[in-house]
Each structure stands twice: as structure tokens, then as C-alpha cells.
Write a structure and sequence with these properties.
single chain; 277 residues; alpha+beta; twelve-stranded antiparallel beta sheet; 20% helix; globular; Thioestr_dom; Acyl-[acyl-carrier-protein] thioesterase
Length: 277
Amino acid sequence: MESHDVRFGELAGPLVHGARFFDWELISTQVVTEAFGHAFEDIVDAGGIPYAPVVAATTVYRYPGFRDTVTVETTPTSVGESSVELCYEMTDDDGDRLATGRLTHVTIAPEGGAGPLPEDTRMRFREALDETAPEVGPRGADGGGELPNFSASFDVRSPHIECSELAYFEEYPRFADVALERFLESREASPDATSGGCNPFRLRDWRWEFVSPVEYESTLTVESDVRAVTEETLRIGHRFESDGSVRIEGVTEYGCFDESGAPTSIAPQLRSLFTGE
């Protein structure tokens, strides 16, 4: 269990930035794995990469804002020789759901590849297993018609890595957001000016598979394939590439949220930026 008061620097407008959900998941991972006898600090000291996500899926029900307290309850749902799946239930002060995530993690050994979990940690995970299997991530279907593709490239340097040699987990949704923003600029549109009073194009549902990390001083290209546009979601296939290899691949659904953080419909003028209608 980990609780966190939303602070000013985490906000994007009146609500938190979507990348914060990734951040809270990893902070909670660090808390729970230390409680299970496998501290991040010890793994880093030994030259490993602790609990790197392999598959990450999350659904956001409400975006928290200033004065909200976010509590994350983390439960192991599956464990293998070198991997563990954790379920993250994020709630507000009243115990109402904010988001649910399911992430599969592996620890990368100093020599590369997934290292085995310590037997004592694996046993503790097994003892705490919960059979819960919430359905999270994108559930929509690809649409038809002519929908746009777009891409953007980024040099992976500080502050995307700070003291690490790899891009941070929570930086990837920021890169995807900037790619989307640049596309909107190419259509000579400002999402704020055409939002219909909502907070537009915020992460709502996603499922990403992490193939390999992105290293310092590499160039990361985000390829975005718009697959469906509905009143509730903008569905985009994402592919993150560097050095000619796919690093991350998945599907992301964006939505609009009102001032309280609740999901609302996407204004017709926003949908038309992608459909041309």
C-alpha cells in the first residue's frame, strides 16, 4: 500500500498528467518488492535493472487533481521463475477507483536477460497471490475509413534519463503526447481551442509491450497509427523505435475528461481533426 498527495508540479491543467499513473505504479512496485525482500537498491548495486515492465495495461476511471490523495494497493496475481504480474488499484480519499493497472515485471541481470527471482521473494509472492484478474486496457475495436498516420522523433537525453543510462518508463507516454500534439499543430489546431470545455486527449486505456529499453543518446521515433475515432475515445497504435529496432509496441486509447476528472465525450470538432468530417 502506498499513498501520495497530488502536488502542484504533477498537474497538467487542473488534473494530473497521464504519465503520473506510470510513475505511481513504479513507486508502488518499489515499495512492495522491498517488503517482499527484494529491494531496488540491492538490485541496482549489483548492476541489474529492477522490475522492468514487460507488459503494461491500465484503465483510468477518473483523473485526480490538486488536493486529491492517491492510494495504490498492489497485489501479486502471478509469479514465475523470473517474472511477476502485479495488479495496481488506485483509489481516492473516498475509496473510489481512479485507475486499475496490470503490469508484468522482470529484473534484468547485469549480463543481460531476465534474472531469476530470489527463492524467498518468489515464495512470498506465491503466498500473497490473489486470483483477481480485472479487465484493463483498450477494449475498443479498430474502425474503418481513411485515418491518419504520423510520427515524431526525440533525442533521449537529460532530463529523460537523469542519472540513468536508459529512458524512464514514465517518459514514453510523454513522447507519445508530444507526437500527438505535433500532429494537431500540423492541422493548424489547438486542442484547447477546440476542446468544448474538456481536458482533451488524455490517456484513458493502454496496453504496451516492452521489447527492449531505450538507451541514452539514442534517437527514439514514435510511430502513431490512428485506428478508430469515436465519441468516447481516440484509438492509436503506437510503435517506439530506435536504432532500427522496435522498443515498445501497443495500443493507446485517449479520451476527454471534465474539470472533476470524470470521462466525457470528445467534441465533434476534435474528432474531425482525424476523420476530416
